[in-house]
Design brief:
The protein is of the alpha+beta class. It has helices at residues 23-32, 52-56, 59-79, 100-109, 125-140, 175-184; strands spanning 9-10, 38-45, 87-95, 145-148, 160-162, 169-171, 188-190, 198-199, 207-208, 210-217, 222-229, 236-241, 247-257, 275-276, 280-283, 286-291, 295-304. The protein has a single domain (9-304), classed as Sandwich (Immunoglobulin-like), CATH 2.60.40.1180. Strands 7-10-11-17-13-14 form a 6-stranded antiparallel beta sheet, covered by helices on one side. Strands 1-2-3-4 form a 4-stranded parallel beta sheet. Strands 12-16-15 form a 3-stranded antiparallel beta sheet, with no helix packed on it. A hairpin with a 2-residue loop joins strand 15 and strand 16. Helix 1 packs parallel to helix 3, helix 3 (59-79) packs parallel to helix 5 (125-140) and helix 5 runs parallel beside helix 6. It is globular and about 55 Å long. The N and C termini lie far apart (51 Å).
Length: 307
C-alpha cells in the first residue's frame, strides 16, 4: 500500500547541454506522465570567462531551459490527451565554478583523504548578482515550478560557511539574495510588463539590463519588487505604475552592491552586506527609483487596496 500523499518526480536532465536533452524528457514522460506529479531539472551557472556582462546574462539560458521543459511537458500532455498539467521540480540550482579545478587537483593528490574540504566556493559580488537573477527567474516561473531547492546550504557551494572545530560562522555574498527571497518572496508572483534597454554579449542576445520579479503578500498587504541592474557602468532609472494596487507606501529599499565585483566575504570581514537606499520614492500609484550599477535590489511597499 502506498501513502496517497506521496508525490512522484520523473527524473529529467541534469543540465540543458546534455546531448539527450530534451529527447530524454519526451521519451520518459511518454511512459510516466500519468503516474508522476513533477519532472526534475538541475542547473549550476558560472564561468571563468573575462566577460562580466556575458556571465550575468547566464540566467537567460536557465529561463530557456525552463521554457523547453515546460514545452515538452505540454507536448506530452497533448499527445496523451491528458487533463493533467505537469509541474517542475528544480531539484538543484546555484552558482558553482570556483572550486572545480582546485578540487580535481586535490583529489588527484590525496584521493583517500578523510572528509576533505571540497566544493567550498568563495562567492563574489558578481556571483551574488548572478544568483539574484536565478532567484528572479525561478519566481517568474512559479506557475509551473513548485519546488526549487538550493541543494547545499553549509560549506559546500553554500551561502553559509563555518570554520573547522567549532569555529566561526560567516555569510557569503549569495546569502543575502537567498535570505531576501525567503523573507519577502512569499505570496502571489505578479506577471509584470517590463520595458528595459538591452545589450548583446558573446553568448546571449537581447539581454535586459533590468531583471525583475514582483510578489504580493495578501496576508500582509505588501508588494515586493526584486530587481537586478546588470549594467556594470550605469545607474538604472526605474519607474513602476502601481495603479492596479491602489495607493502604495514605501517601506524600504534594500540594496546589495559594490564597486568591486570581485569582492568576497571572509571569516574575518563581511565586505558585502545590504544597505538601505534613499533613491526610491512612492507617490500614490507610482514608484521611481535609481538602481545602482551592478546591484541587487529589494523594494518593499505597503499596499492600501482600492475598494
Amino acid at each position: 500500500m502506498i501513502d496517497p500523499s506521496i508525490e512522484l518526480v520523473s527524473c529529467g536532465s541534469s543540465y540543458p547541454e546534455m546531448p539527450s536533452f530534451p529527447c530524454w524528457e519526451e521519451e520518459t514522460l511518454t511512459h510516466t506522465y500519468d503516474e508522476v506529479d513533477y519532472i526534475s531539472l538541475h542547473q549550476y551557472l558560472g564561468s571563468r570567462a573575462e566577460d562580466v556582462e556575458d556571465r550575468l546574462a547566464q540566467s537567460l539560458g536557465m529561463e530557456q531551459f525552463i521554457k523547453t521543459v515546460v514545452a515538452v511537458c505540454d507536448y506530452v500532455k497533448a499527445k496523451k490527451r491528458s487533463r493533467k498539467t505537469l509541474m517542475l521540480s528544480f531539484d538543484e540550482w546555484n552558482v558553482w565554478y570556483h572550486s572545480i579545478e582546485a578540487d580535481n587537483k586535490k583529489m588527484r593528490q590525496e584521493p583517500w583523504k578523510k572528509a576533505p574540504q571540497l566544493l567550498e566556493d568563495i562567492y563574489t559580488m558578481e556571483d551574488a548578482l548572478l544568483f539574484g537573477t536565478m532567484v528572479i527567474t525561478l519566481l517568474n516561473h512559479a506557475d509551473r515550478i513548485k519546488i526549487a531547492c538550493l541543494a547545499q546550504l553549509i560549506n559546500a557551494i553554500a551561502p553559509i560557511m563555518t570554520e573547522p572545530n567549532g569555529g566561526k560562522l560567516w555569510k557569503q555574498t549569495i546569502f543575502w539574495p537567498f535570505l531576501h527571497a525567503s523573507l519577502y518572496g512569499r505570496g502571489i508572483v505578479m506577471k509584470s510588463s517590463v520595458d528595459s534597454s538591452k545589450y548583446d554579449s558573446k553568448n546571449f542576445c537581447d539581454v535586459p539590463y533590468l531583471e525583475t520579479a514582483s510578489v504580493f503578500d495578501e496576508e500582509k498587504n505588501e508588494l515586493t519588487l526584486f530587481a537586478v541592474n546588470r549594467s556594470i557602468q550605469e545607474t538604472l532609472q526605474l519607474t513602476c505604475d502601481l495603479k492596479g494596487f491602489g495607493k502604495c507606501q514605501l517601506i524600504e529599499h534594500i540594496q546589495l552592491t559594490s564597486n568591486d565585483l570581485g569582492m568576497v566575504n571572509t571569516v574575518k570581514k563581511e565586505n558585502i552586506f545590504p544597505t538601505q537606499s534613499a533613491q526610491t520614492k512612492v507617490e500614490d500609484t507610482y514608484l521611481t527609483s535609481l538602481l545602482s550599477k551592478s546591484s541587487w535590489n529589494v523594494i518593499r511597499m505597503k499596499v492600501h487596496l482600492m475598494d
